[in-house]
Amino acid sequence: MIVCLLVSALLGAFGVQAASVEHELASPTVRFDQLIIPAVEAALRQPGTNLGGNIAWGQGYQFAALVEMFDVTRDPKYAELAVRLGDWIAEARDDRHNLRDEVRDRVLPGWSTTGYSEGKRYVWAVHTGVIVAPMARFAAVVRSVPGLAARWGKDADRLLRVAQEAVAIHDAEYRQGPAPDEAYVYCPYLKKPLPLNMQNALAAAWLAIDDATKTPKHRQQVERLARFMKNRLRPMADGSYTWAYWPPLEGPEASSEDISHAAWNADFMVRCFEHELVFDRADVARLERTLSVRVLLADDRICDTVCGEGKCNTYRSAVLRWARLARHFPAVRERLQQMSRRPQFAGDSSSLPFGLACLSLPPAISSKAAADVPSPSETGSEASTAPPCEAELIFPLHSQHNHAPGIVECPNGDLLVSWYRGSGERQADDVAVYGARLKKGSRQWSEPFLLADTPGFPDCNTALHIDHKGQLWLFWPVILANSWDSCLTQYRVSDNFQSDGPPVWNWQGTMFLKPRNFEPKMREGLEHRLKLTGPPAEGSARAERIERLKKLIGDKLASRLGWQVRCKPTVLPSGRILLPLYSDTYSVGLMAISDDEGASWYASEPLAGFGSIQPTVLRRDDATLVAYMRENGSLRKIRIAESRDDGLSWGPVGVTDLPNPGSGVDGVRLQNGHWLLVYNDTTNKRASLAVSLSNDEGRTWKSTRHLEHEETGSFHYPAVIQARDGTIHAVYSYFVKGGQTMKHAAFREEWVR
Question: Which of 261, 390, 518, 623 sits between 20 and 30 A of 79, alpha carbons compared?
C-alpha cells in the first residue's frame, strides 16, 4: 500500500487517480477480493430477486467467480462465501414464495423474471443455467477432494439438489433435430428455439451436474446442443469463427453475435473441448483467433461483435468472460491480464472477478484432445517447425477459364496433370482438356498440351488413373447442350504416355449407365434429406421445387444422362474399379463400376443426399467404403455415406463436422493407413484450402494445415495422391485477380501433423 500511495503521489500531478494505480499494482487475488467480497456482502443484506434478471446477471457471475477461485486456491473464505450466496439465491426461488410462472401456469423451482416477457413472470432457461451451473460446479469441486467433502459436503449436496430441481423445469423443452445428431431448446414463451447463448447456458449447467454426480445423464443432450452450435459456426479465411446470435434451425446465417452474449458460447465451447465433447483443438484455435483478431482490435479497441466490424467498446468488460481460453493459449492469458488492469474495469464486480478467477486457473495439461494444432496467433504462422510444403503454378495466369484438375504419378516417376480450359462450358463450345508434365527430378512443368477435344462440344471435369497394367486412363464429360444435365462421361486409355508431349491414345469409349434401384433409392433419400433440413412451407418456392424433383425422379432419360466425373477412381482389393460420378440434374452421386479392368461399366445405386455431389471414396480396413461429398445445399458441411458391399449400395447420406462452402473435396488413403482430405474449410467462399489428417479412418480429423489461407481468391477443386516415395501431391484450381491457373503443392504427412 505504501508503494501504491507513493506512486499515486508522484503521478497525481498528471491526472492519474490513486484508485487506478492501486488497481494496476494489486495482485489478482487482492483485486478479486476487493471487488467481489463487498459486492456479495452487500447483496446478502438484501432480499434476493430475479425480477429484472438481477440474480442471473449479477450474483450468477459472482457465484461462478467464487467457485472458480476456490477451485484454484482452496481458500476456505471463497467456499464459505459461495455457500452463503448459494443459499441466498436458493431462498429467492419462486417456489419458496409461491410465485407462479404465468406462461407455464404453475409454481416452479426456478427464478422468474418479468423483464423479457411483456410483464409476465417466466423462468428463462438461460437464467436457470447461469444461476445453477456454479452450484453444481461447487459440488463437483467439493466432491473431488475427500478433505473438502468432509467440510462442505452437506452444503455441496444441498446446492446440487437445487440445481437438479431447477434444470428439470426445462426437460420437456429439449428437442432433437433438425439434423440427426443435433438438438435445441424450445421456448414456450417465444414458441420457437432459443438463441445459442441461452440454450448453451443450460447445457453448461447439465455438464456441471454430470461432473458433480459422475454420471453421463445429460451427456447426449449436451453433445447434441454442442453439435447444433458447431454446425452454425462460420469458419473464416483468417482462421477464426464467427456466428449469429440467433441462427435459424437450417444452419448458419450472416449476422454476428455481440461479444457479451457470445462470451457464454465461447465459455461453453471451451468447456466442451475440455470434456472432449464435439469441439476439438482446431475449434478452440479458431475461437482464439476470433478473440485475438476480430474482437481485440488495434488501438485498444474492443469490437462489439465477433465479426470484427462496426461499433466498439460498448461491451468492453464482457471480453473478460472469454478468459477460459487463457488456460489453452498463453498469449490470451497475457493479453487479458493486461486488459484486466485497465482503470476503466476497476469497478466491475461481475465480469472482472470472473475473468480474474479464470486467469488464475492453471494452464491446461496437454492431452489427446489438446495436442492437435497450435494457435496461429501464438506461432505467428502455422507450425513453423514442420517439414516444408513446396508449391508452384503449373502455368502462368491465363485469361480463360481453367478448372477441375486431375493428377497421377507415372510409372517412371513423372507427374501428369489434367484440367479443362475454354471460354466457359455454359455458353461456349471451345472448351477442351489440357495436360502438363513434371519430369521426375525437375522443378519446371512442361508447356500445356491437348489431351482431349470433342469438336463443337465442351469437354470438362477431368480425372486421371493408372491401372495395375501401367496404363493411363483419362475420364471427362462431354457437354452436349451447354448444360451439365446433358453430359456423357468419356474415357481414353494409353500405354504410351511417358515421353514428352501428349499421350498416344489407343482406346476411347463412352459410359452409358442405368442407375441401380434409382427411383426407390432417390425417393428414400429425398425423405432423409427433408428430415435434415425440415419440410418446406406449404406453397413455397421450395415446395414447388421438391414437387418438380419428385416428378423428375421418374424420368428415365434424365436418370441416364448427366453423370460426370470429378474425383479419381478407387480400386478395391478384388480389382473392382469404382469411378465416382455425380449428377447436377438431381444433385446426387453414383459409382460407375467395372469388374473387368475397365472393359465394361455399370452403375451403383445413387448416393441420394440431394445436395451431395462429387464423391471421393476411401476404404477402411474392415472393407467399409466411405464417400465424402461436396454439399450443394444449405447444410454447409461435407456430406458422407458408407457402403458395405463394395460400392453397389450406399447407406443414408449424412453430415460431417467439416465445413464446406459448396466446393469439391478429394481424399487419399496414405501408405500407413492414415487418411488425408483436401477441402475448402469455410462455409461461404473458397479462399481457404485446408489439408486435414485422420489416423482413425475418418472418424476424427485432428490435424489441419492450409495450402491457401487468404481473404480473396478462389482455390478449389483439389485432386490429391501419394507418390511411391511418400510425398503427397495436390493440384487445384487457382483463381486470383489477373487470371486463372493450376497450382501444385508437394508435402509430407509430417507437414500436416
Answer: 261
